[in-house]
């Protein structure tokens, strides 16, 4: 029934959902916050200047030889004619060249006249296949009419088309390489073909369900999905899914040694792993939802889809994987058999030696590991960020070649001019103010030239200046020059007598400057929030205040070391312009959220071993028992992220390398050496304020409470039982009520949602959340943290109130709250 259920769900969703590619949004992910100055400038340009909503393709023509200028002019004439004929693509709106617009020659011809530019505005959406086909046809026409000259089509239209091609070519390679690599590793670990196929089948089902649900949500406008997010989802589900499968099936092998009944053995395995797997999945999901507080579209749109995928994967792991294993019977361990499989779960000899080393010299082990991490962090001395999309392609593109030609012939700033917008309450077309403002802009630092003919809005209250910097427009220096440029224009407007002028700067450089400010602000905020989430999950799991602090400290050290090595390898060795502007935030979020998994697995086992062993022996047992399975899980996860290095995009390559290195660092250095060494040094205080009780022996009566994950664990009757039942029912009612109201509000009321409605919604469920938290604390104190399966499931009802907050944030960001999204002004950066 379970297997049939998942197959039915996957099939039904696939039948009603659009394809994920059809709803991907790659444009908004590369934009600054909607309230930023550069986006306001862009909106003014589009609203006030006719035809500015088109996406321009830039054709660069460079002549060769002694008659370079003449050959370039002849080629421009032929290309202009070809793009003006009736056979041109329908998306070509016009052609601006020295032939069609002789007055613009000063801006379209290089200083030595050997090169010229043609601007080809194109209508339609760059994400549409018809638009991309039109760009390809333009390139074909340009190439046919080029003659002996060198030509290239670049600009926003060319860049958008090349970006789609680069991503589409890498997706198939990514999926095939991930499946093949995971299958090989699973065969080496399980030594059974059937057992190796179970995780792959489960991941395939989870991925299909997550993709279809994500496509439905994206189509409804609830979430955004980009090509990069989809690529990361692929490797994340393969890595996390195989990890969860490995944890459950290894415990199943152990349980079969004491319980011949396969169904009961599987129940025991699921019970014993539920706490750690649930904590792992919850950490990742909550860390992804933490991205909703970001103002940057690149970060805010990144989390919900990945959170959905991990949540679905956790459900599949707890249901489909046990069902498949049971259906396959004992043949799932063929050809070695269950006895040999279970024997491997007792711990390999290498982990006994590692445990002995930690037990013998914990101070030296901890000191050596910390020293190594500090040395690896030294690579951060060469850290710098890059905002150039084209330089991030690890394959040759015509757009990049065209930009290099423009830089060589026209100057570095010509590839992406900026637009200074000055808006007043009076008509600026008469008087000397426009000329005085232009002079003030020209005197600003790093300004190469200002366009000779400023453009005016229809009512004359807004004037637009084309400004070219003498810097690479994607460099940090150019980004730093935007604020002084804006201030210089404001000063010039004041000096020219323009009262209450609004001054904005638009263009790619200004947008990147706003992206950088927002990312700096968001990264700090999200880092603190993610660390708080991880600390809270560890505190709840381990019932400790001290343990989360030193465990989180090891994760931070791991992140710094990973980023240092990534910077050294990709920037210093490989010669990248810098670390992708979003990569650092991605590395931190994923490395912390995934790296804590291995701490969860070993510390959960340590806590279980404390029931029958003293702390020193419990550490050794936890390390030897989890050594093989956790190392295998880490190897799989690192390998899946390493597959991202096959992608021809800098950001994915750097992210894949960093995650693979960081996970291996956590798996083979921090988890088996540093964490056990710290636990050995702290002794009885390792889980403070909890203290280990008297270890049980087989002959001694059981004096401690039963384990939370033991099948026989029962909630005491009487007051505690009634309290727990009340708590569970309130949690279930809160979850169901929230879900019903949210669905009803979205599908019926969102177009007319008022601020009052959302505030009432938030207040009601905020109050319910307060009651829920109080009940949670009361239950925890009354039952002394003996939480069984039902209580753990009830704790999941804490998610809806957090989602309420996320909904209100989403409503504000998308303008569903009238007035606030339009009038509110937020400042990012210093």
UniProtKB/TrEMBL annotation:
The chain crosses the membrane at residues 173-190, 197-218, 230-252, 273-299, 305-328, 363-383, 524-542, 549-571, 583-601, 622-646, 652-670, 726-747, 759-780, 792-811. Residues 197-327, 552-680 form the SSD domain. It is found in: Cell membrane. It comes from the Bacteria. It is a multi-pass membrane protein. Gene3D superfamilies: Multidrug efflux transporter AcrB transmembrane domain. The keyword Cell membrane applies. PROSITE patterns: SSD. Residues 700-715 have a biased composition (Low complexity). The keyword Metal-binding does not apply. Residues 690-715 are annotated as: Disordered. SUPFAM superfamilies: Multidrug efflux transporter AcrB transmembrane domain (SSF82866). Keywords: Cell membrane, Membrane, Transmembrane, Transmembrane helix. Coiled coil: none annotated. Belongs to the resistance-nodulation-cell division (RND) (TC 2.A.6) family. MmpL subfamily. This is Membrane protein. It comes from Streptomyces diastaticus subsp. diastaticus.
